[in-house]
Amino acid sequence: MKFKSINELEQFSFEDSEIKELTVGNHQICFTLSGAMVKADNTQNKRYQDMYCGEIVLQLENTEILRVIKEGMKYYDADGRLLREVPDEDVPEIGQQEIFKRCAKGKIFTTVADEVKEGYAYEFGIDIPREEDEEEIDTYWLCLQFERGIAMWDRYCSPAEGI
After folding, report:
1. Are 160 and 152 in contact (CB under 8 A)?
2. Which candidate, 135, 145, 121, places its Cα nearest to that of 10?
3. Spacing of C-alpha 129 from chain mean position
4. Cα(first)–Cα(last) distance of the chain, in Å?
5. What is the pLDDT of residues 95-132, one digit of tens each?
6. Under 8 Å CB-to-CB from 100, ≥6 apart: which residues?
């Protein structure tokens, strides 16, 4: 890859990035994304403005999966009265691999950085279409702590090219 940014995840925007591939193993998580933006103050961005990159590989090393959460929801009637509530649900370790496989059709809608003493901690909010009806979306939170984050990409492009 032509560009490589180490431990500068806050200098990227992954909002609305489509997940092309997600691999998990050997204390490493690797996202292949389309639609990410390199912010102007990233050390690899000499254009000094936010720029899309075509495809980006985000490699998180020495990663610990803290939690995988399926976000709950509330159902209301037309008058705004709460009909029922589905609480958030922790996905057990045995079920996480299935969620990771489904992520390849998902989209990151937000990332949230958390403070930790050593390394980095991020929560990735991911919308994943349901298998039985792709119009319906499940929202998951992938909560990670890792030692090092490496982002690699080949080129900058316009939004129309990159997506």
Report:
1. no
2. 121
3. 15
4. 19
5. 999 999 999 989 999 999 999 999 999 999 999 998 88
6. 22, 24
CA 130 to chain centre: 17
| Closest to 150 in 3D by CA, of 63, 59, 17 | 59
- Under DSSP, is residue 34 helix (H, G, I), strand (E, B) or coil? strand
Distances (CA, A) of 77 to 85, 139, 159: 12, 21, 38
| Burial tier of 106 (Cβ tally within 10 Å: 0-12, 13-18, 19+) | buried
HSE-CB for 46 with a 13 A CA cutoff: 2
Q: Is 45 exposed, middle or buried (0-12, 13-18, 19+ CB in 10 A)?
A: buried
- Read off φ and ψ for residue 10, nearest 5 degrees: -70, -10
Q: What confidence tens digit (pLDDT) does each residue in 38-76 have? A: 999 999 988 888 999 889 999 999 999 999 999 999 999
Q: Which residues pair with 146 in a beta bridge?
A: 120
pTM, two decimals, is 0.89
Residues 6+ apart with CB under 8 A from 41: 11
